[in-house]
Structure formats: C-alpha cells, structure tokens
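Hi support team,

I've been running sequence recovery on a batch of backbones for a student project. Most finish fine, but this one hangs at about 90% for roughly twenty minutes before it completes. I'm not sure whether the input is malformed or the queue is just slow. I've pasted the structure tokens below so you can try to reproduce it. Let me know if you need the job ID as well.

Thanks,
M.K.
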C-alpha cells in the first residue's frame, strides 16, 4: 500500500502524526550535527593545552579554547580563567559550567520524546474514531449494512494505528541515539574536569615551592 494512500485512509489524524514526525526529524538532524561538532579528541586537545600552559602561555591557551568547538574546550577555558581559585572552588565552578553545557546539549530533546509519546496515542485516538464510525454505520443501516461501509471505519482505525507506530518507533530510536552521543561527551567532560584541576594545582604547587 502506498504511503499517501495509507495517510488518506487515516484522515486528518494521520496527517497530524506525520507533521509531528517531520518536526522530530528536523530536531534530530539539528541535534546530531551539533553534537557531532561538539565532540573532539579531548585527550589530544588537553595535551596541547598542557604543553602551552607549561610554557606559561595563558593567552595562547585561551585562544586555543576559543577556536575549538564543544563543551570540553569551554570547560578548559573556565578552568584556566579560575586557575587561582582553591581546588574545591575550582571544581565547583567547573561543575556549574558542565551542568550548563549539558543543559545546552539536551536542548529540544523533549520535542522528540513528546512526539514519540503522542504519536501512538493519536494513533489510538484514530482507531477509536474508526471503530466509532463503524458502530454508527452499523446502527444507522441495521441488518442491511454493507460490508464496504464498515470497511471504511476499519481502515481508518488500522491506518492511524500504523502511522502512529511508524512515527513513534523511529522517534524513540533517535532519542536514544542522541542520549548516547551526549553521554559520551559528558564522560569526556568528567575526565577533563579531573585532569584540568590536577594539572593546574600541580603547576601552582611547583610555583609555590
């Protein structure tokens, strides 16, 4: 059965579900590109920063952070700017910065989850409308009801259910894929925090000796 035929059988409910699916797809593409750009080889980046900082080139290190996209580079920049703070204060500052970056990465993910939850519910709503249509037809025509008349309601019910599931399943998969990408970046951020704090405090101890 052609997709357009399936949608036409489902009526307005099917088109609403498809519209929601299109919105979710757009969000998924935008978030995928954003997260792909945000993830860098954090270990290579940190090694470069450590080499620059070891030579005392603070401005060069900050410039490298500004030129590098993603939350890891931002955390490194925050760590450099607050390098004179106590260890606990520095770590707390980096935690706050990391929380803000995580919130930014998770932006608009709620759109995908909402559509994933609403799509099958709208499909169920269409199913009920189809069954109701068949019941009303049966009541109106009584024992002389034609099978073709009942078939319209049945097709409405089945098509909206199919469209709802066809949209909800990819939405759930897309959401989980984005969550995996975010988790990987968060792990890089956690490692960056510990390594930056240890490195900066190590430099400070050597300077005080």
């Amino acid at each position: 059965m052609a997709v357009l035929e399936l949608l036409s059988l489902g009526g307005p409910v099917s088109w609403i579900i498809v519209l929601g699916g299109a919105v979710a797809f757009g969000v998924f593409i935008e978030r995928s590109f954003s997260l792909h750009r945000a993830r860098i080889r954090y270990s290579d980046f940190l090694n470069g920063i450590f080499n620059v900082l070891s030579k005392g080139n603070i401005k060069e290190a900050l410039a490298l952070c500004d030129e590098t996209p993603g939350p890891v580079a931002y955390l490194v920049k925050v760590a450099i700017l607050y390098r004179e703070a106590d260890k606990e204060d520095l770590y707390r500052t980096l935690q706050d910065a990391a929380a803000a970056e995580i919130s930014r990465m998770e932006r608009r993910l709620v759109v995908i989850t909402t559509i994933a939850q609403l799509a099958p519910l709208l499909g169920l709503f269409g199913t009920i409308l189809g069954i109701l249509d068949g019941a009303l037809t049966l009541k109106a025509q009584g024992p002389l009801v034609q099978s073709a008349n009942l078939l319209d309601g049945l097709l409405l019910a089945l098509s909206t259910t199919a469209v709802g599931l066809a949209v909800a399943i990819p939405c759930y998969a897309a959401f989980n894929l984005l969550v995996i990408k975010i988790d990987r970046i968060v792990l890089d951020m956690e490692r960056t925090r510990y390594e930056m704090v240890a490195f900066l405090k190590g430099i400070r101890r050597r300077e005080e000796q």
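--
Follow-up from support: It reproduced on our side and the slowdown came from queue contention, not your input. Residues 3-208 form one domain. No action needed from you.
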